[in-house]
């Protein structure tokens, strides 16, 4: 008998709506082991499709196919090819970008990022972890990378009962890899850098922001200096602020690498620095707020909303008339409407009228699957201070 999982009527409705995740509360019967590809049956014993199964996660079912479409090596390979071909069609002006974005490429819980001639993969569920050797072999065949690194260190793997590990799966991985994003060059540390080495999802928002950047620039939560380095060549003076000493050191190295003598990196708590700059009467023509996720879960949303309001209110007070504020949230739990309301309240309380110039999301190499709100996480508003 094949591995099989039966779900409730509510679970069946969710499958029919196109959502790939079925929660534990909607699983009614299991004849499968963790990590297997299973048949998913509805309450009337009708085959709904095939899925990755986890016996640990609160999301035990991640749909791979619907109806009687069989999941085999040929299907996985075809989806990898389609994901790679889609990125090639985008004309991305960078050597570092996302090749496979999990659910949005119909390969749930699989991440593949390209860094020049190297690939970094993440398998974030039991089922995808079991498929990883097969996926690695396919990537070698399709892309012939010099090396493939598994950055299987995200905490979410512990929810699957999986170890957090970092290991070379193919070839060699150097200490750092030189990559280019538009006109900017970076050294990426694939083993220790954030995410898979760099934050790759803001590339297109940085390009958009560069069209407005001018005068004095303040880049908050700068990390490697992504926005600061991209915008500095359009600005007379750039100040990048991050609380991490390592990040500040990298910003300075990257500024030298990219011949940007007008870029100053400061190690400071952004909340404190914004208040200090306001007390000092400083003004900036361009300000970027790109904080880490303030709301990692629903319980942290109220504190996150307060944090977003605080930094946006302070930034608006520092903004020169006619200046631009690029403000972001990468918290999935804070919706676009919630983020827009925070900005509205910050505008009222700071007595700073602002107009929305552009509304952006994660780059096109990080697509959003319609009907799956969890795949829409990054919000970026470009605002102009009007008088």
Return the CATH class of the largest domain: Alpha Beta
Give the helix proportion (percent range): 25-40%
Largest sheet: 7 strands, mixed
- CATH superfamily of the largest domain, called what? Vaccinia Virus protein VP39
Q: Choose one word for the global shape.
A: globular
| pLDDT < 50 runs, ≥5 residues | none
Radius of gyration computed on alpha carbons: 22 Å
Strand content: 25-35%
Distance between the termini: 71 Å
Provide the residue-averaged pLDDT: 96
What is the count of distinct domains? 3
What structural category do the secondary elements indicate? alpha/beta
Q: What is the count of β-strands?
A: 20
DSSP helix count?
A: 9
Written as H for each helix and E for each strand, in order along the chain, the element string is EHEEEEEHEEEHEEEEHEHEHEHEHEHEE
Would you kindly provide a written description of the structure presented here, covering whatever features stand out?
The protein has 387 residues and is an alpha/beta fold. The chain has 3 domains: 4-66, Roll (Archaeosine Trna-guanine Transglycosylase, Chain: A, domain 4); 73-177, RNA methyltransferase domain (HRMD) like (Transcription Regulator spoIIAA, 2-Layer Sandwich); 201-385, Vaccinia Virus protein VP39 (Rossmann fold). Helix content is 29%, strand content 30%. The chain contains 9 helices and 20 strands. The strands form 4 sheets. It has a 7-stranded mixed β-sheet, with helices on both faces. It starts with a strand and ends with a strand. The model has no long low-confidence stretch (mean pLDDT 96).
């Amino acid at each position: 008998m094949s591995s099989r999982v039966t779900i409730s009527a509510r679970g069946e409705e969710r499958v029919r709506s196109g959502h790939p995740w079925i929660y534990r509360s909607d699983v009614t019967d299991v004849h499968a082991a963790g990590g297997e590809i299973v048949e998913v049956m509805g309450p009337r014993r009708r085959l709904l499709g095939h899925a990755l199964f986890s016996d640990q996660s609160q999301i035990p079912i991640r749909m791979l196919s619907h109806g009687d479409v069989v999941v085999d090596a040929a299907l996985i390979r075809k989806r990898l090819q389609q994901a790679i071909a889609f990125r090639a069609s985008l004309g991305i002006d960078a050597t570092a970008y996302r090749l496979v974005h999990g659910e949005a490429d119909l390969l749930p819980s699989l991440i593949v990022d390209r860094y020049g001639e190297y690939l970094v993969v993440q398998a974030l569920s039991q089922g995808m972890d079991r498929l990883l050797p097969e996926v690695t072999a396919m990537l070698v065949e399709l892309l012939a990378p010099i090396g493939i690194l598994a950055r299987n260190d995200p905490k979410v793997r512990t929810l699957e009962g999986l170890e957090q590990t970092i290991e070379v799966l193919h070839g060699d991985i150097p200490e750092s890899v030189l990559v280019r994003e538009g006109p900017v060059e970076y050294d990426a540390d694939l083993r220790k850098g954030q995410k898979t080495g760099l934050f790759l999802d803001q590339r297109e928002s940085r390009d958009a922001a560069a069209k407005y950047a001018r005068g004095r620039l303040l880049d908050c939560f700068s990390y490697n200096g992504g926005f600061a380095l991209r915008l500095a060549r359009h600005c007379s003076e750039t100040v990048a602020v991050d609380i991490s000493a390592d990040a500040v050191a990298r910003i300075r190295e990257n500024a030298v690498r990219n011949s940007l003598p007008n870029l100053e990196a400061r190690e400071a708590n952004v909340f404190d620095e914004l208040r200090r700059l306001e007390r000092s009467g400083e003004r900036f023509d361009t300000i970027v707020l790109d904080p880490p996720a303030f709301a990692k879960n629903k319980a942290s949303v109220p504190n996150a909303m307060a944090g977003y309001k605080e930094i946006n209110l302070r930034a608006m007070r520092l903004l020169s008339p006619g200046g631009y504020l690029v403000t972001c949230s990468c918290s999935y739990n804070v919706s676009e409407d919630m983020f827009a309301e925070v900005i509205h309240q910050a505008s009222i309380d700071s007595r700073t009228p602002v107009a929305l110039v552009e509304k952006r999301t994660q780059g096109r190499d990080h697509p959003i699957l319609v009907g799956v709100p969890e795949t829409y996480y990054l919000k970026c508003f470009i605002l102009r201070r009007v008088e």
